[in-house]
Amino acid sequence: MRIVELTAETKSRLLEDLLKRSPNSYGEFEGRVAAILADVKEKKDAALFEYTKKFDGADICADNLVVSQEEIDEAYRLVDPSLVEVIRKALVNIREYHEKQRQYSWFDSKPNGSMLGQKVTPLNRVGVYVPGGKAVYPSSVLMNIVPAKVAGVGQIVMTTPPGKDGRVSPNTLVAAKEAGADVIYKVGGAQAIAALAYGTESIPKVDKIVGPGNVYVALAKKAVYGHVSIDSIAGPSEILVLADHTANPRYVAADLLSQAEHDEMASAILVTTSRTLARQVSEEVERFTARLSRQEIIQKSLDNYGYILLAQTMEDAIDAANEIASEHMEIVTENAFEVMMKVKNAGAIFIGEYSSEPLGDYFAGPNHVLPTNGTAKFFSPLSVDDFIKKSSIIYYSREALEPVHRDIIQFATSEQLTAHANSIRVRFEEEDAEKEEGK
Predict the structure, then answer these.
(1) pLDDT greater than 70 at residue 251
(2) Does the annotation mark 328 as catalytic?
(3) 327 a catalytic residue
(4) Strand 306-310 to strand 3-5: parallel, antiparallel, or no bridges (unpaired)?
């Protein structure tokens, strides 16, 4: 891996480089995505089945669009029972973590006759997109469905592209069944996003779409935002390790590569105050890469977006980490919890040498759907909050409104909104008229 001295100039160049990976930079695909969205919106099922045949090579129609119970039963026969047990263990951790995020309605009444509050309501129908093909990630199925289930979403609809044989990956089906998906449709790509956003004869319109996908899926989600809500526009995976001389270079190298193997656009960055560690990690990365199965992808990822940044002080290293705002951040330093308190921007923070990033991907419990491309500065991980909406509750009795009604009339009048003022005035016009006459 390249070792670079951390300066204002190198940091600026790095940030510019990383931003090129954002789906917002792929304008050349937007026209194709827009055409697919418009086609599905107009022709509905007919367009959906046509695109599935074109892109996935599968003959899908209204009769076989929905994954049947027989297909789910077959999936359980095909998946290693020990993997099913691991999925169930992970589900316990994921569910317990997200249950702590639940929000409840609240009401606050006062002696003057007023009551204010907040009513929390789960979304009615949510669409979960799950990639297919080579990218089969049952862990993402769990992470997208469980918080929706905990929130109390009425119906969880899942879409995933089928293989040429019209079937869905058994691992995906088992994960979906275990997590609690209500119905699974065999459709993927931008056409699936269109179906979820607009509705077709076979697929109902949803309120929100969540889940990762390729650039076409990401751009489609961006385009339908407003018709429905979405979780985020996910970019390529990324990891930043913040380390000092106490870190184990072998562990650090292994963790950097755990994200570099995702795809050629993935980013793996070490920020350290130790020149010795930088050199040792670079050597370990070379040794690991030579024998890992996704060697070609890893090497391209490291060549494009792999960096070891040498900082003069830990404060400089922390400042750089906050500017980069990585999806995953590992802190492997002598005083890791103290450093953690200074970290402001990260999707998920892993503390200590045994809290490696894959622990969060699969098992620990916190959600692994995280903000990417610097959006951790203002976005949060997927959570139960993403599957609820809040309504403000306002109640005033006549006795509570009377002392303040003139204040509201004055405020509305100052904005030249006379109908607003009148809406309050009519409730006290007789009283106010009497008071004016009595002056």
Answers:
(1) yes
(2) yes
(3) yes
(4) parallel
E-assigned strand segments in 123-266: 125-129, 155-160, 183-186, 208-210, 229-230, 238-243
Q: How far apart are CA 309 and CA 147, in angstroms?
A: 36
- Any bridge partners for residue 229, and if so which? 208
What pLDDT shows up at residue 10? 86
Name the active-site residue from 328, 330, 368, 405: 328
Q: Which of 178, 238, 327, 330 is catalytic?
A: 327
pLDDT, one tens digit per residue, over 267-282 is 999 999 999 999 999 9
pLDDT digits (tens, 9 = 90+) for 331-359: 999 999 999 999 999 999 999 999 999 99
Separation of alpha carbons 421 and 410, rounded Å: 7
Query: Could you tell me the CA-to-CA distances from 74 to 68, 140, 141, 164, 174 in Å, in that order?
Result: 10, 21, 19, 18, 10
Q: Which of 136, 319, 328, 360 is nearest to 236 (CA)?
A: 328
pTM for the structure as a whole: 0.91
Structure tokens at 319: 């400042």
Residue with the two structure tokens 């759907």 = 369
> Side by side, which strands form the sheet with 229-230?
183-186, 155-160, 125-129, 208-210, 229-230
